[in-house]
Write a structure and sequence with these properties.
The chain is of the alpha/beta class. The protein has 2 domains: about 75-145, 60s Ribosomal Protein L30, Chain: A, CATH 3.30.1330.30; about 150-315, Alpha/beta knot. About 40% of the residues lie in helices and about 15% in strands. The protein has 12 helices and 11 strands. It has helices at about 25-30, 50-70, 80-85, 105-115, 125-130, 150-160, 175-190, 205-215, 230-240, 260, 280-285, 300-315; strands spanning about 75, 95, 120-125, 140-145, 165-170, 195-200, 220-225, 240-245, 250, 265-270, 285-290. A 7-stranded parallel sheet has the order 7-6-5-10-8-11-9, sandwiched between helices. A 4-stranded mixed sheet has the order 1-4-2-3. It is flat and about 125 Å long.
Length: about 325
């Protein structure tokens, strides 16, 4: 009726009106708005895909930071540290755990470090655990500075100099740092001028390589090539004969004789599993094998390099 709108209770207050709410999600009653489409898995906090992306970003950032700041490597464990100091591996500092149980190795490590003037820092067990990143340190961690790689072209030039040995080793796909160190040790024993390794898919000079070299890295340079094949071609143009070691070659290394081995030579050694890469193999002037009693056997890369180096030196001195 006209005029009844002013009667008390005739009009409902705002927000109290009844009506259809089924299927509305409460939007009419509460004025709610949708949240939009479901985010991608990589954008949802806590989702496994998001965690993987975050971890990958963190690894990339740490890698970039390490390259920029030239992060240090470490040797850990009592035997490893004492052996490293005995052979004169370059080191920047020694961290010793507080209240460490001393033995002959610990006392020798501290004495050797003091004689070399190395900074010695006493740190907590927790700090050593962090530095060792989960490795077994036995209370001792030795910091080793990053290795300064030689230039491949400069190394080739030094090997051809009047006082050079005219003998180099190239490693193709050798990813074990201990193998690299052992090859450097053999190079030092047989007067090779140095080692050339590729920048990618190759072991680098680390504390483990220093240890395996028994100090030879202090006098045998390692050069890192952006492209190993191009470096080998440059060496060939300079006068080197590039000889690749491969198990399926028909010609034996011992059959080469002084006619080939007396001149400048680069011995190329591949990985134990994959051998030489295709491009590197095609670049070699000669492909030879090391004769073995059993065709099913294979040689470790560092052992093969040592045998080849001995063959070269024997041919040159015979």
């Amino acid at each position: 009726m006209a005029g009844n709108s002013q009667r008390r209770g005739a009009m409902r207050k705002g927000g109290t009106k009844k009506g259809m709410v089924v299927g509305s999600g409460g939007q009419r009653r509460k004025a709610l708005k949708g949240k939009g489409p479901t985010p991608k898995a990589t954008e949802r906090t806590g989702h496994p895909a998001a965690r993987r992306v975050k971890a990958a970003s963190k690894r990339a950032a740490n890698s970039s930071k390490g390259r920029g700041s030239r992060a240090k490597d470490v040797l850990m464990g009592r035997n490893a540290v004492v052996e490293a100091l005995r052979v004169g591996i370059p080191a920047s500092s020694l961290q010793v755990q507080q209240y460490i149980d001393t033995d002959d190795r610990v006392r020798e490590v501290i004495e050797l470090a003091a004689n070399r003037g190395l900074p010695l820092m006493e740190v907590t067990r927790a700090e050593l655990d962090r530095i060792a990143d989960g490795g077994v340190h036995q209370g001792l961690v030795l910091s080793v500075p990053p290795y300064d790689y030689a230039d491949p072209d400069a190394l080739i030039g030094e090997a051809l100099a009047p006082k050079g040995s005219g003998l180099l080793i190239a490693l193709d796909g050798v990813t074990d740092t201990r193998n690299l160190g052992a090859v450097v040790r053999s190079a030092g024993a047989f007067a090779a001028q140095g080692i050339i390794i590729p920048e990618r898919r190759s072991a680098g000079v680390t504390a483990a390589a220093w240890k395996a070299s028994a100090g030879a890295l202090a006098r045998i340079p390692v050069a890192r090539a952006t492209n190993l094949t191009r470096s080998l071609v440059s060496a060939q143009k300079a006068g080197f004969t590039v000889i690749g070691l491969t198990a399926d070659a028909r010609q034996s290394f011992v059959e080469l004789g002084p006619g080939v081995l007396s001149g400048p030579v680069i011995i190329v050694v591949g990985s134990e599993g994959q051998g030489l890469g295709r491009l590197v193999s095609e670049t070699c002037d000669l492909l030879v094998s090391i004769p073995m009693a059993d065709e099913q056997e294979s040689l470790n890369a560092s052992v093969a390099a040592g045998i080849a180096l001995y063959a070269v030196v024997s041919a040159r001195t015979s």
